[in-house]
Amino acid sequence: MALCRKCGKRREGKSFTTNTPGGTPRRTCLMCRNKRRRTLYPGRYGKIRASHKKWVDGHPDYDIKKRYGITWGEYDKLFRKQRGRCAICRKPPNPNSRRKRLSVDHCHATKKVRGLLCSLCNCMVGRLKEDPKKFDRAIRYLEGRLYAIV
Fold first, then answer.
1. CA distance 31 to 5
2. Is the overall model pTM greater than 0.90, yes or no?
């Protein structure tokens, strides 16, 4: 944790990127630097964001490749292998929801893709921190074996 000289808040070390070859960390946090950049260059941020979006739109595999290391073709192959359903609850994606696709589930330690999950199951896996012991405990709790039912 480091102290930002601008806002005076303590933040994680990753908020203070280095700016020199020697690796000396900056004294202002990323949020304060971004706020200052937006005031100094108001029109620039919209142009950069628009040009980046245009580039990403022209390269459809960019986002999924960068995040998970797979292409949309590999996503489709996995989707067909799971018969278009969530790997945990076996439900198809809800066409009326904001997120119309299944989420790519991956191990955060190895970055290896495990399968496709609906947003509810993906959140559940994330909330339990991918810990099998917590899943086992949750199962025992739901089956009534963990505590006596009143």
1. 12
2. no
